[in-house]
Amino acid sequence: MTNIKLGVIEARFADIIWQNEPLPSGELVKLCDEELSWKKSTTYTILRKLCERGIFQNQDGIVSSVISREEFYAMQSEEFVNETFQGSLPAFLAAFTSRKELSEQEIAELQSLINNSRR
Length: 119
Fold this sequence. Notes:
Layout: H1 8-20, E1 23-24, H2 25-36, H3 40-52, E2 56-59, E3 62-65, H4 69-85, H5 89-97, H6 104-117
Antiparallel strand pairs: 1-3, 2-3
Helix pairs in contact: 1-2
């Protein structure tokens, strides 16, 4: 998938779709008017761009995701770690924890993730 990054406004638009999918394109236009003050043409232009990127689809007037919100942000996170920390998750965690102390619950959750990945 090329260009999986979303700008701030695109991310707000994507969240509207993820929170309401599947939804008729006319309903998406109404939601974007209410939440983003967008005109119909703006909604369809941004939708077309995100469909071209392979994030959403508009089939027979029904808008739905090709990839889930969780999958999208997992891909973005992976790309960030790859670009910024040469793909090293330990280097990312070291940088993250150098400025933020982890709670016992966060440490337990991370330990659980590590243990589950060993299987």
